[in-house]
Amino acid sequence: MTILVFADIVGRIGREALAQILPKWKTEFTPTLTLANIENLAHGGGITPHTVAKLIELGVDVMTGGNHMWDNPAYMEVFANKDLAGHIVRPLNDVGVKPGVGALELEKDGRRFTILNVMGQTFFKNAYPSPFDALDQALTKADPDSIILLDVHAETTSEKALISRYADGRVSAVWGSHTHVPTADERILPGGTAFMTDVGLTGAHNESIGIEYEKALTLVKDGVKTHLAPPYSGPAEVNAALLFFKSGNRLPASIKRLREIVTVLPN
Ligand SMILES: [Fe+2]
Ligand SMILES: [Fe+2]
User: Fold this and answer.
1) What is the pLDDT of residues 243-259, one digit of tens each?
2) 1 C-alpha vs ligand 1 centroid, how far in Å?
3) How far, in Å, from the CA of 110 to the mean position of ligand 2?
4) Which ligand has the minimum distance to the alpha carbon of residue 155?
5) Average pLDDT over the chain, rounded to an integer
Protein backbone atom coordinates (compact mmCIF):
# COMPACT_ATOMS: atom_id res chain seq x y z
CA MET A 1 0.00 0.00 0.00
CA THR A 2 1.33 3.44 -0.87
CA ILE A 3 0.43 7.01 0.07
CA LEU A 4 1.39 9.96 -2.11
CA VAL A 5 2.10 13.24 -0.30
CA PHE A 6 2.42 16.69 -1.87
CA ALA A 7 3.21 19.83 0.09
CA ASP A 8 2.32 23.37 -1.07
CA ILE A 9 0.59 23.52 -4.47
CA VAL A 10 1.30 27.10 -5.53
CA GLY A 11 -1.07 28.90 -7.89
CA ARG A 12 -2.36 28.04 -11.36
CA ILE A 13 1.09 26.92 -12.49
CA GLY A 14 1.24 24.49 -9.57
CA ARG A 15 -2.24 23.11 -10.21
CA GLU A 16 -1.48 22.62 -13.92
CA ALA A 17 1.89 20.99 -13.17
CA LEU A 18 0.12 18.63 -10.78
CA ALA A 19 -2.46 17.83 -13.48
CA GLN A 20 0.37 16.86 -15.84
CA ILE A 21 2.13 14.51 -13.42
CA LEU A 22 -0.47 13.10 -11.03
CA PRO A 23 -2.23 10.73 -13.50
CA LYS A 24 1.16 9.24 -14.39
CA TRP A 25 2.19 8.76 -10.74
CA LYS A 26 -1.26 7.34 -9.89
CA THR A 27 -0.78 4.71 -12.61
CA GLU A 28 2.80 3.98 -11.55
CA PHE A 29 2.38 3.89 -7.75
CA THR A 30 -1.40 3.24 -7.30
CA PRO A 31 -1.59 5.24 -4.05
CA THR A 32 -4.47 4.40 -1.73
CA LEU A 33 -4.42 7.98 -0.48
CA THR A 34 -3.16 11.23 -2.05
CA LEU A 35 -2.61 14.35 0.04
CA ALA A 36 -1.64 17.94 -0.76
CA ASN A 37 -1.21 21.21 1.13
CA ILE A 38 -3.46 23.95 -0.26
CA GLU A 39 -2.43 27.13 1.58
CA ASN A 40 -1.13 28.67 -1.69
CA LEU A 41 -3.56 26.99 -4.04
CA ALA A 42 -5.36 30.05 -5.44
CA HIS A 43 -2.94 32.52 -7.07
CA GLY A 44 -0.33 31.83 -4.40
CA GLY A 45 -2.47 32.64 -1.36
CA GLY A 46 -5.56 30.94 0.01
CA ILE A 47 -8.23 28.73 -1.47
CA THR A 48 -11.34 29.13 -3.63
CA PRO A 49 -14.19 26.69 -4.42
CA HIS A 50 -12.95 26.34 -8.02
CA THR A 51 -9.34 25.51 -7.09
CA VAL A 52 -10.26 23.04 -4.32
CA ALA A 53 -12.73 21.32 -6.66
CA LYS A 54 -9.96 21.05 -9.27
CA LEU A 55 -7.71 19.14 -6.83
CA ILE A 56 -10.54 16.79 -5.87
CA GLU A 57 -11.18 16.18 -9.58
CA LEU A 58 -7.48 15.33 -10.02
CA GLY A 59 -7.78 12.71 -7.27
CA VAL A 60 -6.40 14.45 -4.18
CA ASP A 61 -8.23 12.82 -1.26
CA VAL A 62 -7.24 15.07 1.64
CA MET A 63 -5.91 18.63 1.71
CA THR A 64 -3.97 20.18 4.59
CA GLY A 65 -3.48 23.88 5.32
CA GLY A 66 -1.26 26.55 6.79
CA ASN A 67 -0.91 30.23 7.59
CA HIS A 68 -1.78 31.41 4.05
CA MET A 69 -4.93 29.32 3.87
CA TRP A 70 -6.97 32.33 5.03
CA ASP A 71 -5.46 34.94 2.63
CA ASN A 72 -8.48 34.92 0.31
CA PRO A 73 -11.93 35.46 1.90
CA ALA A 74 -13.25 32.81 -0.52
CA TYR A 75 -12.21 30.26 2.11
CA MET A 76 -15.62 30.94 3.69
CA GLU A 77 -17.37 29.65 0.55
CA VAL A 78 -15.11 26.58 0.54
CA PHE A 79 -15.93 25.67 4.14
CA ALA A 80 -19.64 26.37 3.59
CA ASN A 81 -19.65 23.66 0.92
CA LYS A 82 -19.63 20.23 2.64
CA ASP A 83 -18.45 18.43 -0.53
CA LEU A 84 -15.30 20.55 -0.53
CA ALA A 85 -14.78 21.03 3.22
CA GLY A 86 -15.04 17.29 3.82
CA HIS A 87 -11.64 16.90 2.15
CA ILE A 88 -9.82 19.61 4.17
CA VAL A 89 -7.85 19.58 7.43
CA ARG A 90 -6.73 22.93 8.84
CA PRO A 91 -3.97 23.20 11.46
CA LEU A 92 -5.06 21.79 14.84
CA ASN A 93 -3.51 24.67 16.78
CA ASP A 94 -4.85 27.44 14.52
CA VAL A 95 -7.67 28.04 16.94
CA GLY A 96 -10.18 30.86 17.18
CA VAL A 97 -12.70 31.79 14.52
CA LYS A 98 -11.26 29.57 11.78
CA PRO A 99 -13.69 27.03 10.29
CA GLY A 100 -12.91 23.40 9.57
CA VAL A 101 -11.47 20.48 11.49
CA GLY A 102 -7.91 19.86 12.69
CA ALA A 103 -8.16 16.09 12.33
CA LEU A 104 -9.86 14.05 9.64
CA GLU A 105 -10.59 10.32 9.81
CA LEU A 106 -11.53 8.30 6.76
CA GLU A 107 -11.55 4.75 5.46
CA LYS A 108 -10.33 3.76 1.99
CA ASP A 109 -9.66 0.36 0.45
CA GLY A 110 -10.28 -1.27 3.84
CA ARG A 111 -7.67 0.84 5.68
CA ARG A 112 -8.38 3.56 8.24
CA PHE A 113 -6.53 6.88 8.11
CA THR A 114 -6.24 9.88 10.44
CA ILE A 115 -4.84 13.06 8.94
CA LEU A 116 -3.49 15.77 11.24
CA ASN A 117 -1.98 19.19 10.53
CA VAL A 118 -0.16 21.51 12.98
CA MET A 119 1.41 24.96 12.74
CA GLY A 120 4.92 25.57 14.04
CA GLN A 121 5.52 28.55 16.33
CA THR A 122 8.80 30.03 15.10
CA PHE A 123 8.89 33.14 12.82
CA PHE A 124 5.13 33.43 12.29
CA LYS A 125 3.26 36.72 12.73
CA ASN A 126 0.51 34.94 14.66
CA ALA A 127 1.28 33.32 18.01
CA TYR A 128 0.03 29.75 17.65
CA PRO A 129 -0.46 27.57 20.75
CA SER A 130 1.89 24.62 21.27
CA PRO A 131 1.86 22.10 18.40
CA PHE A 132 3.20 19.50 20.86
CA ASP A 133 0.18 19.88 23.15
CA ALA A 134 -2.20 19.99 20.17
CA LEU A 135 -0.71 16.76 18.86
CA ASP A 136 -0.94 15.04 22.26
CA GLN A 137 -4.60 16.00 22.55
CA ALA A 138 -5.40 14.85 19.02
CA LEU A 139 -3.67 11.51 19.57
CA THR A 140 -5.74 10.77 22.67
CA LYS A 141 -8.83 10.94 20.43
CA ALA A 142 -7.38 9.34 17.25
CA ASP A 143 -7.97 5.71 16.33
CA PRO A 144 -4.65 4.09 17.40
CA ASP A 145 -4.98 1.38 14.74
CA SER A 146 -5.35 3.89 11.92
CA ILE A 147 -2.51 5.13 9.75
CA ILE A 148 -1.87 8.55 11.28
CA LEU A 149 -0.36 11.18 8.98
CA LEU A 150 0.93 14.58 10.14
CA ASP A 151 1.69 17.67 8.05
CA VAL A 152 3.89 20.05 10.10
CA HIS A 153 3.53 23.51 8.63
CA ALA A 154 6.58 25.31 10.00
CA GLU A 155 9.35 27.70 9.02
CA THR A 156 12.40 26.18 10.68
CA THR A 157 13.96 22.80 9.98
CA SER A 158 14.81 22.35 13.67
CA GLU A 159 11.21 22.75 14.80
CA LYS A 160 10.04 20.24 12.19
CA ALA A 161 12.74 17.78 13.33
CA LEU A 162 11.70 18.16 16.99
CA ILE A 163 8.02 17.62 16.25
CA SER A 164 8.87 14.55 14.16
CA ARG A 165 10.89 12.97 16.99
CA TYR A 166 8.15 13.90 19.49
CA ALA A 167 5.63 12.05 17.29
CA ASP A 168 7.99 9.19 16.37
CA GLY A 169 6.31 5.80 16.81
CA ARG A 170 2.97 7.41 17.63
CA VAL A 171 2.15 8.43 14.06
CA SER A 172 2.95 6.76 10.73
CA ALA A 173 4.50 9.72 8.92
CA VAL A 174 5.49 13.34 9.53
CA TRP A 175 6.40 15.70 6.71
CA GLY A 176 6.96 19.41 6.50
CA SER A 177 5.30 22.04 4.37
CA HIS A 178 5.49 25.86 4.11
CA THR A 179 9.14 26.44 3.09
CA HIS A 180 8.55 25.26 -0.51
CA VAL A 181 12.02 23.71 -0.96
CA PRO A 182 12.31 19.90 -0.86
CA THR A 183 14.85 18.52 1.60
CA ALA A 184 16.98 15.43 0.93
CA ASP A 185 16.56 13.92 4.39
CA GLU A 186 13.68 11.48 3.94
CA ARG A 187 14.12 8.55 6.34
CA ILE A 188 12.52 6.20 8.83
CA LEU A 189 13.04 7.51 12.39
CA PRO A 190 14.16 5.19 15.25
CA GLY A 191 10.56 4.61 16.40
CA GLY A 192 9.38 3.66 12.89
CA THR A 193 7.82 6.92 11.68
CA ALA A 194 8.64 8.19 8.17
CA PHE A 195 9.94 11.77 8.07
CA MET A 196 10.96 14.42 5.55
CA THR A 197 11.66 17.98 6.71
CA ASP A 198 9.91 19.58 3.72
CA VAL A 199 8.35 17.86 0.74
CA GLY A 200 8.74 21.02 -1.37
CA LEU A 201 6.34 22.99 -3.52
CA THR A 202 4.56 22.06 -6.68
CA GLY A 203 4.81 25.30 -8.62
CA ALA A 204 7.10 27.69 -10.49
CA HIS A 205 10.65 26.37 -10.84
CA ASN A 206 12.99 29.31 -11.50
CA GLU A 207 11.32 31.94 -9.34
CA SER A 208 11.49 32.86 -5.63
CA ILE A 209 9.97 29.86 -3.82
CA GLY A 210 7.18 29.87 -6.38
CA ILE A 211 6.58 33.63 -6.43
CA GLU A 212 7.46 35.71 -9.49
CA TYR A 213 11.10 36.67 -9.09
CA GLU A 214 10.89 40.33 -10.21
CA LYS A 215 8.05 41.09 -7.80
CA ALA A 216 9.80 39.41 -4.88
CA LEU A 217 13.01 41.30 -5.73
CA THR A 218 11.22 44.64 -5.78
CA LEU A 219 10.04 43.95 -2.25
CA VAL A 220 13.26 42.54 -0.81
CA LYS A 221 15.83 44.74 -2.62
CA ASP A 222 13.93 48.03 -2.96
CA GLY A 223 11.43 47.74 -0.12
CA VAL A 224 8.53 48.47 -2.50
CA LYS A 225 5.54 46.23 -1.91
CA THR A 226 3.92 44.90 -5.07
CA HIS A 227 1.36 42.17 -5.41
CA LEU A 228 3.39 39.03 -4.83
CA ALA A 229 2.09 36.21 -6.98
CA PRO A 230 3.27 33.15 -8.88
CA PRO A 231 3.61 33.26 -12.68
CA TYR A 232 0.76 31.62 -14.62
CA SER A 233 2.99 29.51 -16.85
CA GLY A 234 6.58 28.45 -17.48
CA PRO A 235 8.91 25.82 -16.00
CA ALA A 236 7.41 24.13 -12.95
CA GLU A 237 8.57 21.54 -10.44
CA VAL A 238 6.45 18.79 -8.95
CA ASN A 239 7.72 17.42 -5.62
CA ALA A 240 6.24 14.66 -3.50
CA ALA A 241 6.98 11.94 -0.98
CA LEU A 242 5.84 8.37 -1.49
CA LEU A 243 5.21 6.19 1.57
CA PHE A 244 5.28 2.39 1.29
CA PHE A 245 3.45 0.17 3.82
CA LYS A 246 3.71 -3.60 4.08
CA SER A 247 0.33 -5.28 4.20
CA GLY A 248 -1.59 -4.46 7.37
CA ASN A 249 1.25 -2.48 9.00
CA ARG A 250 0.58 0.83 10.74
CA LEU A 251 4.16 2.07 10.34
CA PRO A 252 5.71 2.45 6.87
CA ALA A 253 8.53 0.33 5.44
CA SER A 254 10.07 3.23 3.50
CA ILE A 255 9.74 6.78 2.20
CA LYS A 256 10.91 7.92 -1.21
CA ARG A 257 11.34 11.42 -2.66
CA LEU A 258 9.78 12.16 -6.08
CA ARG A 259 10.53 15.13 -8.32
CA GLU A 260 9.83 16.13 -11.91
CA ILE A 261 10.28 19.33 -13.89
CA VAL A 262 7.57 20.14 -16.46
CA THR A 263 6.49 23.07 -18.62
CA VAL A 264 3.13 24.71 -18.01
CA LEU A 265 1.81 26.51 -21.10
CA PRO A 266 -0.20 29.77 -20.95
CA ASN A 267 -4.00 29.48 -21.04
FE1 LIG B 1 3.35 27.77 1.29
FE1 LIG C 1 2.74 28.61 4.99
Assistant:
1) 999 999 999 999 999 99
2) 28
3) 33
4) 2
5) 97
Confidence (pTM): 0.97
Does the annotation count 87 as an active-site position? no
Is the separation of the CB atoms in 64 and 151 below 8 Å? yes
Q: What string of DSSP letters covers 62-97?
A: EEE--GGGGSSTTHHHHHH-HHHHTTEE--TT--SS
User: Could you count the other beta carbons within 10 Å of the beta carbon of residue 262?
Assistant: 17
Q: Which amino acid is at 160?
A: K
Across 109-253, the runs of DSSP E, i.e. the strands, are 111-119, 147-153, 173-177, 187-188, 194-196, 202-204, 234-244
Distance 247 CA to ligand 2 centre (A): 34
Amino acid at 103: A
Q: Give the closest ligand to the alpha carbon of residue 200.
A: 1
Please state the length of the chain.
267
Helix (H) or strand (E) holding 29: helix 11-29
Q: How many domains does the chain have?
A: 1
CATH of the domain at 193: 3.60.21.10
CA geometry: angle 3, 5, 11, nearest 5 deg: 145
Phi-psi region of 153 (alpha: psi -120 to 50; beta: other; left: phi over 0): beta
- Name, in order, each residue with C-beta under 8 angstroms of 158's C-beta and a sequence gap of 6 or more: none
Residue 156 domain boundaries: 2-264
- Determine contact, residues 127/96, Cβ cutoff 8 Å: no
Give residue-wise pLDDT tens across range 170-208.
999 999 999 999 999 999 999 999 999 999 999 999 999
Active-site annotation holder among 50, 68, 153, 180: 68
